[in-house]
Amino acid sequence: MDLIDLYLQEDLGQGDVTSQALVDDREGRAVIAAGQDGVLAGVEEAVEVFRRVGCSCQVLANDGDKVTGGQKVLEIDGPLKGMLAGERLALNFLMRMSGIATLTRAVVDSCRKANPNVVIAATRKTTPGFRRYEKKAVRIGGGDPHRFGLDDAFLIKDNHLTVVGSVFKAVRRAQSFSFGKKVEIEVEDLDSAKEASRAGADIIMLDNMTPAQAKECYLAIKGIDQRITVEVSGGITPKNAKAYAHYADVISMGALTHSAPAMHLSMHILQ
Predict the structure, then answer these.
(1) pTM (2 decimals)?
(2) Contact, 64 vs 40, CB < 8 A?
């Protein structure tokens, strides 16, 4: 059973008793429309949900499109019971993913006014069981998904450093463990940033710094090795991200996934 089947089973249980009681076996047509302006995402998933309940769809707007309130984005044909069975899950995909894509696009557009090359990235602060879709929505909005899981790359954090004892030792241990994965390390001050640079880290994350502190560390790191990617994270929000953009290669923020408001969309059966 894949995730969409699992989500359908969660919602349907033993069956949609309301539709079983009130709806006959007729076929019909419905439309899904945006209730506000935003960046659309989750179309592929919504189409697949309706397919699995016996319906077909005509796509009227695609993932990544900017849509306006009232705009129709999907037309559904098939059994009315199927439409009603798939409605909530399809809308959950569209509303959640479009909200993330919309917020991501806004942050990307804002930050790239200060630095056209900065990358806006997500984190692993995602909804359990829904990470692949939330990360996809970030990409649709113009951002980078960052790591999908702990096996993607090394990311040495404060608790790892507590165990190992030093920045230099942690970087070198990771490098010796696998040559094929990049080594990223989180630092909280200028001295640690310099130590990580000299140890040969591929990516240095500046954690919970002010814009002024991040600038100082960025210049120091690039002064040691221009090839090191500098990421800023921790305490970054859509409102303050632009202040960090000029002195960062990557800005990562959990807010893209854990705090994005859902975009309003709704389904209407046509008589």
Answers:
(1) 0.93
(2) yes
- CATH code of the domain in which 203 resides: 3.20.20.70
| 129: region left, alpha or beta (phi > 0 left; psi from -120 to 50 alpha) | left
The H-or-E segment that residue 195 falls in is helix 190-199
Between helix 80-114 and helix 3-12 the angle, nearest 10°, is: 130
pLDDT digits (tens, 9 = 90+) for 218-247: 999 999 999 999 999 999 999 999 999 999
Which H or E run includes 269? strand 265-270
- Is the pLDDT at 271 greater than 90? The verdict is no
Task: Tell me: pLDDT of 66 over 70.
Answer: yes
Claim to verify: residue 242 and residue 130 sit in the same structural domain: yes
Q: Could you give the number of structural domains in the chain?
A: 2
Token pair 């602060």 is found at 125
Q: Which of 72, 113, 125, 242 is catalytic?
A: 125
How far are the Cα atoms of 30, 47, 50 from residue 72, in angstroms, in the given order?
A: 10, 14, 16
242 catalytic per annotation: no
Cα dihedral 121→124→126→130 (10° resolution)? 100
Structure tokens at 176: 């010796």
Q: What is the pLDDT of residue 1?
A: 63
Q: Which ranges constitute the DSSP H helices of 31-185? A: 43-52, 80-114, 131-140, 158-164, 167-177
Position 178 scores a pLDDT of 86
Tell whether the model's pLDDT for residue 23 goes beyond 80: yes
The predicted-structure confidence for 135-173, as pLDDT tens digits, reads as follows 999 999 999 999 888 888 899 999 999 999 999 999 999
Closest CA relative to residue 262, chosen from 137, 145, 148, 147 = 137
Full domain range(s) for residue 36: 3-106+261-270
